[in-house]
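Milestone M4 deliverable, item 7.
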Amino acid sequence: MTSKEEFVKYLSSVNTYGRKYASSTVYTYGQSIELISSDIKYHLENNFISLFNITDIEILSIYFDQLYSIPKVINEEKIQRNRKTNAFKRYIEFCRTIEVSNFNVNQPDLNEVYQLRTEGGKKVVISKVAERDLALRSDAIKIHGTTCFGCGFNFEKAYGSIGDGFIEIHHITPLSTYNKSKIVDASRDLMPLCSNCHRMVHRKKNYVLSLEELKKIISHNNN
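Output delivered:
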């Protein structure tokens, strides 16, 4: 079963506010994820294929933060009443659920899943995390600049004005490992990485490459 089929199955089986998602809503959310994939391809990554190919929470959160910090996308979402934003959040909730336990049609509803995931003070409210990350991103760029710490790539040098100010910001300690809210020091806990390097440090599930490991890999394969 594909991730899209599992996502539709998940939406069809959970309850929200005492009622199940209508079949039309389930269909709309599935279609919205495909539209979001197109948005990511257009605005962020030319070779992007589909969100349904990704189930890693950290990577999904990165795409969420980046996409919904673009003014044009934000304005479009206001007109569409946050339809795609809500679908993206539901997909992240779905991926978090299958990460915690094997998905089945008897999964608890979204409210119960939220309680299970937040016991012990673990902060997983997507909208709040996104707001915090945007501020930290700005601080990190002011401190570290926009040149990749891994390979030295700079978007502005490569693409001109369209790349001005663009870089991805990597949490050295993944947010998913925090057991409770944590003060993040942009100078110590964050660093700029290009899109390729950022994807590679998160390539292995449950293991994040250190900067030293990343540089060794790049050096080894470019000599």
